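User: Sequence for Cadherin domain-containing protein below. Tokens please.
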Amino acid sequence: PPFFWPQREPHFLLLPLVDLGRWGLSSGVSGTTSEPRKAPGAPWESLQRQKRNWVWNQFFVLEEYTGTDPLYVGKLHSDVDKGDGNVKYVLTGEGASSIFTIDENTGDIHATKRLDREEQGYYTLRAQAVDRETNIPVEDESEFIVKVQDINDNEPKFPDGPYTAGVPEMSPLGTTVVQVAATDADDPTYGHSARVVYSIIHGQPYFSVEPKTGIVRTALPNMDRETRDEYVLVIQAKDMMGQLGGLSGTTSVTVTLTDVNDNPPRFSRKLYQYSVLESVPVASVVARLKAADPDIGSNAEMDYRIVDGDGPGLFNITTDEETQEGVIILQRPLDYETKSTFSLRIEATNRNIDPQFLTFGPFSDMTVIKVNVEDVNEPPVFTNPVIKMTVSEAARVGTTIGTVSAHDPDSASSAIRYSIDRNTDLERYFNVDAMSGVISTAKPLDREVNSVHNITIFAMESIAVITVMDINDNAPVFAIEYETRMCENASPGQVIQTISAVDKDEPPSGHRFYFSLALPAGSNHNFTLRDNKDNTASVLTKRGGFRRREQALYQLPVLIVDSGSPALSSTNTLSVRVCDCDGDGVPQACGAVAYTLPAGLSTGALLAILGCIFTLLVLVLLIVTMRRRRKEPLILDDERDVRENIVRYDDEGGGEEDTEAFDMVTLRNLNIMRDPKVRRDVTPETPTFFSYPSSSASRAAYKVLPDNMLFREFIWDRLKEADVDPTAPPYDSLQTYAFEGTGSVAESLSSLESLSSDSEQSYDYLSNWGPRFKKLADLYGTMEGSGVFS
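Assistant: Structure tokens for Cadherin domain-containing protein:
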């Protein structure tokens, strides 16, 4: 009969199965099942199956498996399988082939991919055993479940975080603030991977959190908003019940202390003083004051009232709803002469009082306000505003009609002056005595002409006039900005400008100014200045023959001194312009003269000169451009000669036998580096230091010449090519090969002409070459050549 073996014994799950055929599922642990029994002498087909009560039909596989080999899940086995390879196991269902594979021979099931329980918790698979040859099922298809076993691979998270909460200030200990909740994606039915506990990381000792519920509570009583109104808490949720190795997540909780009315209003001072003019109109604001309340909003609203004070009904106080200030308003006019000081007691009281904080009270405060009335200079007041008087039309001029009387409200001793408003007495029929107020006739009266005269009397206080005495604190300056123009034909001694001065000061005796030319202009040869002794001065020319072309503008510094004590002076500049005038002396053109062409030089001639100059500039530019494009020589100057190039080949090496330092094959191959463009069948016409052999003879001789002659012919050939090439410098061959040849007295020092190693050579001749070769003579003169160069 078939059976299932789960992978891990602690997580077995027994489920009743009805008929599963003769299947067996194994995960490595034994399970209780009934084996088929064969009756003696009976074939397997006639076996009687016994009914099973329970079989295993679940496998378990660990999620997030990180091993390199496929994870073994379990084993399928059919009683029909005799181990001869005739039975093949087939796996279908969720994840078959892609996630789960089965060994068709053994029935072993493996997981080939990492599984995540949070993505899919279980897989339903179907197993079947078929004949390998015919693919005919030998067992009925059986279904089983592979359950993904959870590990702790997900940290707790706060889906609603970060949190914001508020709690009233002065709350008692343990007041609930907010509840946080964290979720864990791990399996809550397996282990403790999803069992979360809460703790507070930041925010102590002000707040605490319940480990299991996540409820945040106050940990200190009576926290004051006015001291600190905001707290930021960090709450941690940790799985595995907070044990070591558990994963954790955090969130922030911003707790704001909300305001309560726990602070009464308080005046900053016990006495306030204000001043007000007696002339302010009724309903004007006399003063503003405010009691401080640290609370906010409705908890800081207050009412003001006048508790006590003198002058009842004179002032009123209201509350400014925007600023919560007490506004004192004038109810009746003020009179400094009647009463100049008032004292008021003001009370400020909170509107919204919380009964639970009455012990913090009383929620009111009192202060005293002193209002000082300032005096205003009021006009005189008549005893009777309207006075009726009678007089006979026969009254003589000067007859007294009546008297008006007025007094000064500010001072009883102030003198009053009276006058008539002449707009009401145009014919001047009446007079009033300025000091006594007596009204009298000034003209004869005629009732038939005018029987009633309405006149207005002015009463004025005596006026004191204060005059500020002047001192000499301003220097004199020009009266105006002068624009002086002078004709070119002005004669010597001609007055060209008269100047005057002004001074802001007002001396009692009047102004007196003195004019002169400031140094060093006093000694100039063009102009002079004459003081006219009447606070003016004249500017005169000293010479004639002024020319605009020579100088069109003259600047004259004029010194002006007043007669004050001490005397003050200033220097003012007078600008004189030379002008071209007509016959009547009227200036026509002033200022500098533009340059004109000399007489006889026309515009065409000037253009021709400019064209020549432009042509010369173009030629110079072309010459400079051509010189820059010239090919730079290989040797830049004459100071560098061929001797400087010796350093480039000053390596004797091992002679002709040293094939590593020099490639001798290249020298022996005469056809290398021949330029096909150069004609070698023509003998160069340029004379050289060497006689060139014919081409055919030289080519034939190359094969029979020794090496030293071969190299000589090679160099001659290169010299010939250089002479033919017009672009090659004449010293190219010397620079490249530096072969001295037989033309040198000392012959060549190069290894190209060195003797063979078998010959001997004497170097005694080095001593005859002078002091430059003394060192070589000392080294080689007394030695055998074969010993040196062998």
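Residues 91 and 97 are 8 Å apart (CA to CA).
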